[in-house]
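Progress against Task 2.4 (sequence-to-structure conversion) is shown through the following example record, which the project officer requested during the mid-term review.
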Amino acid sequence: MSRLGFHAAIGAFVASVGYGVPQVLQVAGVLPTPLDRILIFAPSLILAPCFVLALAASYEEGVRPFRVWRLGALAMALLYAGFVSIVYVNQLGVVLPREMAGQAEGYSLLACCGFRQPFTVIDLLGYTYMSVATLLLAPTYAGALRWALLLNGLLAPAIFLQLFWPWLIWLASPWLVLFPLAMLLLALRLRHSAAADSA
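Structure tokens generated for the chain above:
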């Protein structure tokens, strides 16, 4: 399981960087639409199952009393993946194709990610659960991994409260560094576990 978890955590790292770079380029006005959203939503859709599998591996290698914390983290990861996958598959499979075909009228309720759009709310709730997952996972590890998970977890209020104050995205922006760092460190930890298992 640790070997699968290592690959999943690397996948989560790559997908989160793959999301973050186009996100920054979108804010900078470099990417045209709808290319910007395609490049953001596609890696985000890949990130969700990778994160769940990485946390499943983390739970599997856990020892008491940490297993309950890791199980809680896995439960939050499953909620995150369920919510955001619905958002991104709709963006990639319905909203963007209709926009590109000039048939977007009547589908504004499915749009993401503007202020107070229904799918934006679902996306924010999903990422709040992701941050809570890393917060629950943090005390079960030590060193730099613990700190990366903890700091990412502490972003949960800033992520959720964007429901009311969109400018909080700037307080949540450290996610672009903290989450990939946490996944890279988790991958290294799981690789170490996999090597120990096969020895």
